[in-house]
Design goal:
Blueprint (H helix, E strand, L loop, with lengths): L6 E8 L2 E6 L8 E6 L3 H11 L3 E6 L3 H9 L4 E4 L5 H6 L6 H19 L1
Parallel strand pairs: 1-4, 4-5
Antiparallel strand pairs: 1-2, 2-3
Length: 116
């Protein structure tokens, strides 16, 4: 039986900027990108980073509807910022790149455990 490959992405939004971390199919080699959430160009860049195979975790923000429309609801995992990202921040994960990487890693682990 062939194992599905999981490409996980985590997104953290701070103000009008996003931080996205992309992990490869082994959950390694993070690539970090930044952009603006309040411009069409920035939003399109984000969608381009995530296509065609990434699943993404993102806090509930204005980006959610864009990502669901572009990627489909089965590829977008929405977290309540107060219940997830704030708790992670209190645990010592800094907002921005570190938070995006942490979110991607958690998503990768969750998806990998479902595939086993």
């Amino acid at each position: 039986m062939k194992r599905m490959q999981t490409y996980a992405a985590g997104v953290d939004v701070i103000g009008d900027r996003y931080h996205v971390c992309l992990l490869d199919a082994q959950g390694k080699h993070p690539r970090i990108y930044h952009g603006r959430v309040d411009t069409v160009h920035g939003q399109n860049k984000l969608v381009t980073y995530l296509n065609p195979e990434y699943v993404v975790v993102v806090a509930y923000t204005d980006l959610v509807s864009l990502l669901v429309r572009a990627l489909g609801e089965e590829r977008v995992f929405i977290k309540d910022e107060r219940q997830e990202y704030t708790v992670w921040e209190r645990a010592g994960i800094k907002r921005g790149d570190a938070m995006a990487r942490f979110a991607a890693r958690i998503l990768y682990e969750d998806c990998s455990s479902l595939e086993s």
